[in-house]
Amino acid sequence: MPLLLPILLALACAPLAYVAGRWRPGAAAWMGAAGALAALGALVHEWTTQAPARLVLPWAPTWGLSLEFTRDGLSGLYAALALGVGALVVLYSRAYMPHHLAEEGRPARDEVRFQGLLLAFMAAMVLLVTVDDLLLLFVALDLTTIISYLLIGFDREDPESRAAALLSLVLTGATSVVFFAGAMALGLQYGTFSLPRVIEHAAHSPASTGALVCLAVGALGKSAQVPFHFWLPRAMAAPTPVSSYLHSAAMVAAGVFLLQRLYPLFAPATEVRDGLLAIGFLSMGMGSLMALVADPFKRVLAYSTIAQYGYALVLVALGSEGAPLYVAIHAPCKAALFLTAGAVTQVTGKKKLSEVGGLRHSLPVLAAASAVAAAGLSALPLTVGFFKDEVFFHALARRGPAFMAAGLVGAGLTLAYTLRLWWGLFGGPRQAAPAAPRLLVAPVVVLAAAILLGGLVPGLLVEPARAAAEAMRGEPSTLELAYHLDARAENLLAVGAWALGALLFATRHAWTRALSRGLAAGSRVGAERGYRLLLHQLDRLSTWLHEKEVRDLRDRVASVLVPTGLLGLAVLGVTPLRDRFKVGPVGWADVTLVMALAFASAAALATLRAKGHLRLVLLISCVGFSLAMVFAFAAAPDVALTSVLVETTFTLLFAGLLALLPRARLERAQHEAQNPRGRDRLAAAVAGASAFLLSWSALSHLHADRVGARTVQLAEAAHSPNVVAAVLTDFRGLDTVGEMSVVVAALLGVTSLLRLKGKR
Description:
This protein is an all-alpha fold. It contains 32 helices and 2 strands. The protein has helices at about 5-25, 25-50, 75-105, 110-130, 135-150, 160-190, 195-200, 210-220, 230-235, 240-245, 250-260, 265, 270-295, 295-320, 325-350, 365-375, 385-395, 400-425, 440-455, 460-475, 490-505, 510-525, 525-550, 555-575, 590-605, 615-635, 635-660, 665-675, 680-700, 710-715, 725-730, 735-760, and strands at about 55-60, 65-70.
């Protein structure tokens, strides 16, 4: 299966790097980069020698679920970005991480864990852009959320890093859940989760607006667009390689990719697209203004990322065929600038523009390479960045003067904050600094060379850009990239943007302080403050509920039983069933069954007045064994045997545990049990009534052909002679795996806490 080769190679990078790192920590980066380049080579080979293809692997055929993958222009472009930029960032981190770990006082072997997480994120990104199924899109999206949480919080001893990781997890995780709701709505609407079939159905029956809004929210959260933008600047607490990769070619790009992949669904929904257009322009403006006043290097770049993906969102909302190209050009420019900021921090120990300057003399190669990257981000001629603004201005010119003016201002602001960043690092009076390690500079030089090559030979990008545009819009693309020395609107807007940007940079000292005060005042009522207030109130509510719940064991049990009982009663109240409760005949053949039920009921009632915990355990076991008799008389010997085994095991466990507990605590518990409170009686009444009525209602509407016979047939199809075993291992297989995963995760958490306690 050639289509899977790049995916499998990308998935193999992290394990291979881990194995190499066990031999020597520094080998992890070299092995990971080699694997990424091998996957990139396989991808390019398939892309250039084979036509677009799809692969469908049946997963759960009875549910209509399959593992579907695609190789088209859009997936190829984004996978190439993830693999190419990822390989360079991994090599960069080989020189960056030892110094970073030494500063944090951490062992050198932690580099292996870092490389593994970075490569795992790369694999998740490749998986995300190649799957062709809505449910798989959600799974891959969640993988990027989880791994990014671990990467952003890699410096786990740093409170700022932990807070930033939690913020990114909560925000991007919550929006991913909203995306899942939209995917489920579409699956129910069209009867399939296969993306090509969903798009085919949508051509005749447009997707519901609610589903599209949910999908858009999931994408906007990932791409850090207003009002979900504030997690991105906080994420700059992560090591620089993480910031460079996740926020240039990977995580933030994933949000825009989702919108481009799902564009055929959004195309008819003009209201949703207008909303995306407004959010794109708002993100452009807000991100640009914040970048003009931010002091830390990486924060300037973070706000720039918000603004630049606002551009990309505008292009998607306008349906421009240049939208994929814009992201592809932005990625190497932004990655190079992030890597430059990390190199400057490592050689100078500084993180703010106000603390550095004049480094062009000490770091001439880095200054020149980053100047090319800055020129590309600012869309200057002879760099590939020139063409990202050309397609942007072309799309705006077709919508009228107001859009053109907004685009001109946005591009002018881009040039202004990019000049401010580069000049703040390398301009001004000369300052001495140590030479940067070659491996910190080499990836920036490679990215700068690619930016120059794309600007000098733009024809290299035409075919990939057209293929991506065709995959996004579902129609042939006529995109062209060339320099035109005339007075067309795109050129005039570009010249105007350069003039505006230069003017803003030259006069920055006159307006920076006023802009800073205005933005600071606005932040007091922004989305981030709302998030903090919401989190604070949820924390207070959680504390209140916890105090109420854990007051004693009876309250804890009631906190589970009462809501469950109320939910059951609510279900009965809204379910329109005729003859809901029926009383069936009882004959002589049912005497043994009635006797077993009566014995179980008597044992249950006896537990209410039992004195002594051993007697209580024995009575509870009598209830269980009596129910096993009920199953035996009801012709379910397999269930009866299972019940006997479970009751025997738990009886022995309870007896052993009670023998280990202090006698004083047992006597106090016995006294409390013999003196129930009013709320205990109320909780028991709600839970008991709900269980009784639900059971009666269910037993009143049993149909063998609907439940029993069908279950037996399915068990035979699953090659299992035992219905119970088939239910547990086959019908509920995924549910069982989920339960086991929760238990394993809890055990791992407990083990980690015990190890941490031992160290302290």
